[in-house]
Amino acid sequence: MCLKTSRTDECDCYDCVEARQGRAARRQGGCGEPMPGVPDALESWRSAFHQAYREVQVEIFKAKIKAGMSKTMEKTAALVLDAMIGEILDSARRAESRKDLRKKLEKLVASAGAD
Q: Does the predicted model carry a pTM greater than 0.85?
């Protein structure tokens, strides 16, 4: 049964042509539907086209952003990086301080048990 038209003799899809020639169509389902489990080649090409189109758009925006905002973004990146490095160093100092405190507490507890 053709999904495009009510008459298979008016359709030129693979299923309808095969039916007119007396051969069983390879596809299951209706006119123009891909076989279950078999990727649709046209959909694959469409998907690739849209992906490539999107990538071109992204590249255009990248060029525009670099041209118009690169100096500001470089300065911003430097400031953020400095702040993040400072946070990491502070965190490392706090961790070392906690480690020293634990060691001192362990010694104190161990010496208290020896009394």
A: no
Total domain count, the chain: 1
SS (H, E, C) 42-91: HHHHHHHHHHHHHHHHHHHHHHHHHHHHHHHHHHHHHHHHHHHHHHHHHH
- pLDDT tens digits along 3-31: 555 665 667 777 777 777 776 655 555 55
Rounded to whole angstroms, the Cα distance separating 115 from 110 reads 9
Q: Please tell me the predicted confidence (pLDDT) of residue 2.
A: 60
Instruction: Give the domain extent around 45.
Output: 39-114
What was the pLDDT predicted at 19?
A: 75
Task: Give the rounded percent of residues in the chain with a pLDDT score beyond 90.
Answer: 55
Domain assignment present for residue 21? The answer is no
Distance of CA 107 to the CA centre of its chain: 52
- Residues 6 or more apart whose CB falls under 8 angstroms from that of 31 comprise 1, 2, 3, 4, 8, 11, 13, 15, 16
